[in-house]
Amino acid sequence: MTNSPPPRSLLMVAERSLLGAAIAEEWLAQGNRIAAIWTSDHRRLRPNLLERIGAAVTGLPTLSSIARRHGIPIRQIGRLSRMPDLEREVRATGADVLMTVMTHSIVPEAMLALFDGRAINCHPALLPHFKGPQPLQSMLHDGCGEVHGGLTLHVLSPGIDEGAIVAQQPLPLRVGEIPEWNALSVLAVRRMMRGETAAYLRGDRQAVPQQPGSGHYRRVAAGEFSITADKSLALCQHLSRTIPPGTLLWLPAPADAARRGSYRIAEALRRIGPATGRTPRIGWLTIEADVTDARIAMRRRHKIAEIVARIGESLRMRRVLARAARAAGDGPASG
């Protein structure tokens, strides 16, 4: 009889996400423990209303509910490089594995050295392509989602998203199919955690180095995926077609001191005439504003619309999960 490997202890650095929750749940299902979850989220991973609705409809737990059920401490952190006594704080958790999930936190080299190659990041694209932040929006915007859509688990390294690849799963990403992609990504990352990742941590699998200079780092400029006055009508229409529903924003021009913050926009927008030079008109239902070559009207996306949309998206996810469960003869985990 083969002896089972001893359980491992994980330190997660994560934000609120479906992938983070799926990784945590699969890790625990393998008999391991999570020593702590560190997050920059000021809510300490507490789900908002839309996330609670999504969890209720899909049956997928949130990372917060997993932590609560298993008594996992959640700690809010700032920049890891500025944490006093970082190495001592990491050692105090007792963790021998580190995972980062959907976070912008940069892990210092001194922290990586404590894990001796057992530090892994989950990146929602097929590396070496689309390294960097916001790969989903970038792929949809650039029209590359069907080619480079997927998940990569890779060893953390000093270079951003440059570490050796532990596991990959292609998942073509298409405009209008984000709920389906989200559901498939949850199933895929759980398979990768109990398959290739577990084998890598046992020493039964080698990570494959990325070729130097391969792929690309996709930089994202401030406001690149938002409707702003310095964009053309054609570009704004492209954004309205490709950026996932619920994430498209209109940002007032910095010079418009009376209008601060951002406004969530529904997918549809229309041209109402040439640019006028007038200030934006912000109504309860619509916004009229200039872009470089037109005056446009945008329909605002209010909370009620967000709730209705989230229910619909979650039902689509649940159908994908149910089909997968029937095919596997097992149901999705709930909590």
Structural write-up:
The protein is of the alpha/beta class. The protein has 10 helices and 12 strands. Strands 3-2-1-4-5-6-7 form a 7-stranded mixed β-sheet. Strands 8-9-12-11-10 form a 5-stranded antiparallel β-sheet. Residues 331-335 have low confidence and may be disordered.
Ordered list of secondary-structure elements with their pairings:
Layout: E1 9-14, H1 18-29, E2 33-39, H2 49-58, H3 63-70, E3 74-76, H4 86-93, E4 97-101, H5 109-113, E5 119-123, H6 135-142, H7 145-148, E6 150-155, E7 165-170, H8 178-202, H9 233-242, E8 249-250, E9 263-273, E10 281-282, E11 286-291, E12 294-300, H10 303-328
Parallel strand pairs: 1-2, 1-4, 2-3, 4-5
Antiparallel strand pairs: 5-6, 6-7, 8-9, 9-12, 10-11, 11-12
Strand content: 15-25%
End-to-end gap: 34 Å
Helix content: 25-40%
Radius of gyration: 21 Å
Summed up, the helix count is 10
Structural class: alpha/beta
Uncertain spans: 331-335
Average pLDDT for all residues: 94
User: For the largest beta sheet, what order do the strands appear in spatially?
Assistant: 3-2-1-4-5-6-7
Query: Largest sheet, described in full?
Result: 7 strands, mixed
Any idea what the shape is? globular
Quantity of strands, as a count: 12
Order of helices and strands: EHEHHEHEHEHHEEHHEEEEEH
